[in-house]
User: Fold these one by one.
Assistant:
Number 1:
Amino acid sequence: MWLLHLLPDSLLELIVNAVLILGIVLTLLSFFVLNRILRLIPGLASYHTLIQIISVVILAAGLYFKGGYVTEMMWREEVARVQAELDKAKAKAAEVVVEVQEKVVFRDRVIKEQGQTLIQYVDREIVKREEVVKYIENCPVPAEIIDVHNQAAKLNAAAKGEKK
Amino acid sequence: MKFIVLSAILFLSACVSKPVPVKMEFPDAPQALLKKCEELKTIEPKAGGTPITELLKTVVENYTLYYECSNRVEGWNEWYTNIKKIYDEVGK
């Protein structure tokens, strides 16, 4: 069957249609016309059934080829349509990637800058304020509080450990 | 004649639909979303107590890390929602 792919589509269609039409014509002739003619000729009357069988076989082959050809063409069209839609989706997806990438990078930068600004503000302003200096000198944060903070920062370690 | 009709049905029934052989590639995600979320920072306790400003700075740093991670999660959601919408349209 792969040899059929070497033939141009138009030639293939022509052959398929020719076989189908030949089958239809021969079948109609053999069933409705030829039997009347052959009855008149004594020697050929016995060939009537054989001609009918041959014509039906040609018609069946024509139908089979036509069905196969039409399905193949529809299938090829469907493949082309889906491929085109996929290419379009791929292009749109690439746009979404760029859009999301830019948005995330921008927000990331803003978050980092804001964080840095706050830390700089603490180092530059807060630590120099008299009441803060006094507070730092008189009320250092106890180690227990730092421990709880550190434990909270490592909460995910327990969950990760369970997974393994 | 019955034979012809039956054969026609039989031959035409062979024309069943088959799946379209189009390979669909999984779309690429933005590189910014592939970065792992960083671990939160801890404070090194100092002898004689840790200054409150040290605690404050670590908290600010951890908030920063949280929002960076949350930003990536939002990015994943946005990417997924858009990509799903685009690919759901294919073949309709």
Number 2:
Amino acid sequence: MNERTTYRVAPAKVFLALLSRDARVTRRELPFFLIRTLMQPLMFIIVFGSLLPKMGFMGAQYKAVLLPGILGVSLALSAIQSVALPMTMDFGWTNEIEDRLLAPIPIPLIAIEKVVVGTIQGLIAGLCVLPIARLIMGPIPGLTLAHLGETVFIALLGSATFSAIGLFMGTAIKPQQIGFMFSLIIAPMLFFGCAYYPWKGLDVVPALKYAVLINPLVYVAEGLRGVLNPSSPHMNLGVVVAVLTAMLIVVGWLGVRSFLKRAVK
Amino acid sequence: MLNAIETHELRKVYTSPAPKPMRGAPPSANGDPRGPGGGDVVALDSLELAVHEGEFFGMIGPNGAGKTTTIGILTTRVRPTAGNATVAGADVRTNAVEVRQRIGVVPQRPNPDRSLNALENLVFHAAYFGIPKKVATERAHELLQKLEIASKAEAKVDEMSGGQQQRLMIARALIHEPQILFLDEPTVGLDPSARQSLWAILRDLHAQGRTIVMTTHYMEEADRLSDRIALIDRGKLLALDTPAALKARTPDGSLETFFMSLAGHKLD
């Protein structure tokens, strides 16, 4: 056996092998993953996007505001969870990420691979929600898919940012505290993320209007509003892209650093 | 003789408690490893080692002696505080990727990828080393056969016993045909017959010319398997020689007595 070939391998090839491992696991767990992350957005769609408008408590116009926001929430939740939850397991008691940490690839690339996988899962979630939402909500005034490329770009940038947040949370927070931290961070993020109302609406509470700018979901929801329903009030798309890119770089750097701390003692 | 591994003045200080808790016993009967920094723990203190190519190298020491830290540094998973180490000619600090390419590691506690079955664990691990799927699958079946867990190929990891998982870890460490195999206390928690069969596997691997580094706190295990044994205590090398030469240094010919005479306390 010792006379057989030892294969040399380039980091790019190892990266692809790591991706194919995650693709296999994701494919196997996809239904559970979708139920876990999409249940809450779907309930919102049913209640706020269908029931309340039918009861006459909400105007049809609200659906146009809600849909991009729900899309943002779905991809945010799935991107964060698909990275943070496995990460706490991987570095927890089972320490099962070890076989990947022994792979001949620079360790930061293992962290980046996780962010890529989270980004893809975020996109998949968004892709599932959009048609379901349209189906349940019925016709949505002003909704257009004319800017599909821009829509995918904003969704991609948002997913990547939330995936990086997941990497940071999953590596920086102790496994025992992850549930607690999720409640502490995720709920305010969702409700102050301008997902269920436009940012412009916060003119009525100026202090809150500027406080929420720290929240990446604001930019994702507003950006998606801008591309899916350009006639509705929304934040400038240049600002959206610039801030999300900056956030991705900063949180990505923090996440990789935190991953490295856990991976190499 | 060429050296597969060399360390010079290797030192590791953990600023917080060491990552692997010391099982059972308090740190040391006659000395506190905590340094002047309060919470700092000196796990390795100027360790000098040279492991020859093709050698079966045993490392013996009590819990907390620094064995796992040494393996951690040599396998690039722990960063040394000072000193340097080369593994298969590559520096563990500056060329960690190259080191990982050439080594296989069997951890103290089995840590298979629980999202994959046994066969997938091997085939994906091989893929991380650039081995084509067809070759990897052939090698995986061969290894599972050899390690007598072929019936578990499609089994979820959770359905395998501790001993079977440990064998899977050995298969994983071997699938990419590494030059050097590291085993960190591989027989802890195994029953006597599983231990015997693991010994047979290790002897076989050694006979094929592979360099093997194994830590243990069982004297008998090190004595039976190793070409040379390093006795380590509190991060320092106490002695390094063949089992016969070490035993010849005490009147009763026992490694335990020899360790006690050097360290001033028992092995366990």
